[in-house]
Amino acid sequence: MANPPPQSQAPKRSNLFLRYIAMIILALIILVGIAVLIIWLVVRPKHLEYSVEDAAIHNFNLTDANHLYANFDFTIRAYNPNSKVSLYYDHVEVSVRYEDQTLATNAVQPFFQSHKNVTRLHARLTAQTVALYDSVPKDLKLEKSSGDIGLDVLIRAKIRFKVGVWKSKHRIMRIFCSPVLVNFSKAKNFERIPCEVDL
To answer: pTM for this structure?
Structure first.
């Protein structure tokens, strides 16, 4: 009686190779996870803090044709509480809005912020012949007659993080400060407004 032909070893070798590949991938994932955890424990990143410290309106004029002329001045406090993380602000744009309508926009000079640092940004925005729509002109006139105007200040920044010699890729950070209550009288003190940060 003839002996049966020997079974092929190819399927077993293929399964063994796939297992090795899966084990290598799993080991790499675990190593990357451990590295990220170690970096996080060493760096211990904290939330960046922003607030509007001062705000003023100059040369406010709302015409009968509902066109706005005004200068807005804002002092924005940027606090980096991290002890090992610095930031590059490569592009910073500040906008002021009223009832979802943008009144003025301007860019702030790029800057570098080291760790444990407070930086104050001075932004001047000019509204020139800005056409106002819907109920915005009426509401602006009413608020001006009361002496205060509630505004929204938005900041959009393109930033990079720096830890030691490592620098991250660009990230977009959005900062929202509201309501920023601006008084037309210089005699009244401005109350600092904390901002929300979306990163």
So the answer is: 0.78
